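Um, can you check?
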Amino acid sequence: MLFEDTYKTITGSAEGLFKDKGSKFFAYAYPIEDESEVKELVDQLKKEHFKAVHHCYAYRLGQDRTNFRVNDDGEPSGSAGKPILNVLLSKDITNILVVVVRYFGGTLLGVPGLINAYKTATQEALINAEIIEKTVNEIYEVRFEFVQMNDVMKVVKEFGLKVKNQLFDNQCTLQLEFRRNMTNQIIGKLEKIEPIEIEHIATV
């Protein structure tokens, strides 16, 4: 399958609530960029909801959507983290963490009841979230001599490229950001300018 150059994520945090037989399931959705953010956000919720019995979560990271993890936090295996993740998969959302905090209401819900509760709470949070589509962008560093400036800037202007960083001297450096599906076209044009060095820096 060809790598898509768009992905869906959420713009900011959102909350949802589901109740069943006295148990309350508070869902919190957060946009994240890195795994290191997960522990901090989960710990923060554990402090806020210190009387809750479970803090279950799932996250999904990366534009290729391959990095994910689930945590049942003491609930029966597969009854909490996986239903949360399945909602993220069905909505095709990435760079997101959803934590569902459960307050036990005194009545056991059974595994099917738990699956439904964690799934529905997650869905409620996502209903309240703003979901947007972003493009996968590449950042390239372009190094060239000052006399090539006009030729390089013509390409920048032609494609409306975003300049992330610039240094103009006898030797000039530009960091350019553009949508992944434009890469061949843009690099092809830049490579025609002699002498020029082009280096891939990052995918964002």
User: Anything to note?
Assistant: The longest helix spans residues 110-127. DSSP finds five helices and eleven strands in the chain. The chain has a mean pLDDT of 95.
